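Worked problem 6 (solution included).
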Amino acid sequence: MDSFFGIGFPELILILIVAGIVMGPERIGQTARWLGRTTAQLQKISRGFIRQLNHELDNSSDGQALRDTMQELKQLRRELTDLRGEVNQTTRGAAQAGRQALQEVENSIRPPDLKPGKSVLPSQADAPPVGDKNGAVPGGAVKNTAVPPLPDLVDVPDDPE
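Solution. The predicted structure is:
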């Protein structure tokens, strides 16, 4: 007897000693016999119930229906797992497409000089030969800047109405 209700042999001996001290030697025998008979009756009832349940499941068409239902349940569980994988894959694809669209929008609103793949400062070979020795361009702008110069202000006459 390795374990009985999670109680090992040393714990069982200790319980019997304490019960012997509390109940006395004559009552411990009566209690042990009563406990043995009750345990045997419970086991007999349990075995009878299991035997009857198995007999009913094997002989009735409901048992076959129950087995069929269990097979359907397993099939539905597999389909649910497959569907979950497809949904996860679709959402990953949609999230990636969203990130790509956001990147395209960000790239489309940048000034032409700041598009990806181009350097922020153009090289000297790309620079036009216009301007003085300080790098000033006619119109007051400085060449080789990351942001293109703003256009000159236009004077608009007031509306006569």
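Discussion: Residues 119-127 have pLDDT under 50 and may be disordered.
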